Write the structure tokens for this entry.
Amino acid sequence: MKLLILDAGHCLSLALAREANRRTDTELMIEAAVTITPERLADISPEALVIPPLSRPISAEPAAVTAHAEAVEACMEACVVCGVPLVWCVSDQLYEEGFAGPIDEHVVPRPRDDSLRRLVITGDRIRAEAPRHLIIRLGPLFALEGSHAWLGELVDTLVIGGECRGESDVIFCPTSADAVAVALIGMLQQQSCGADAWGSYHLAGTEPVSAYTFISMVRTQLATRLEGRGEHRELGVVKALKHHHDQPLRRVLNCRRVLEVFGVHQKPWRLEVGRLLDAWCYVNEPAIPGSKTGESP
């Protein structure tokens, strides 16, 4: 199976590359650009085109959100011309106001923010014009490397003593980019074998948690690992933010459909964070990386 993914530096693109390299049944082509022409798509002739998510669209510049939406629509048009299935990964932040309970796949986001509504319009076009599509709604992605690699940003900031901020009243399910890569390849393998199960799916980690608690846990686990190898380092502090004074905002995705259709289980984010921090300690002994800004999605 040959797949094509755009935005080569994105943390999901890197995760897909790692997973494809471990397999003998998947060939991954990566384009640096965020869009593709019908001519180039026809030349590569993949079995699916994968578009990584725009991370943190709520806090992104409106121009960046519009540019992403327009790029996705251009890709969708190229896919329709070439008969190539489209996979678009989308941030859970499109559910701007959250829900009291887990959010099912059939619930189309209806945000009030103009930029987020622009992304919903793109999703509506995909559903109407590209029957062979997967819209994958994700919890906040984390990874150690690549753009939008939230965990890598947090670790880099903590080890130089910087401050990390996270909302204590926004509840979500952090999602490992590596876990998404494994799930996507498995889903597309089944599609290539005739599953014909196109549509929208939710994919996230287990155990809803606040941004503040997630960052605090990362700090605690990192400190434990550094102390275990004899490094007594003063890590940066974690500051709690609060924006929803009445009750916490919950963006918890119900991932039951992806399990029922494709057999994909959610990965526990705590285990994934622990695995990645172990990998970071192995690579960075005794070196400490430089600084980036660690902020919550």
Notes: The chain has a mean pLDDT of 93.
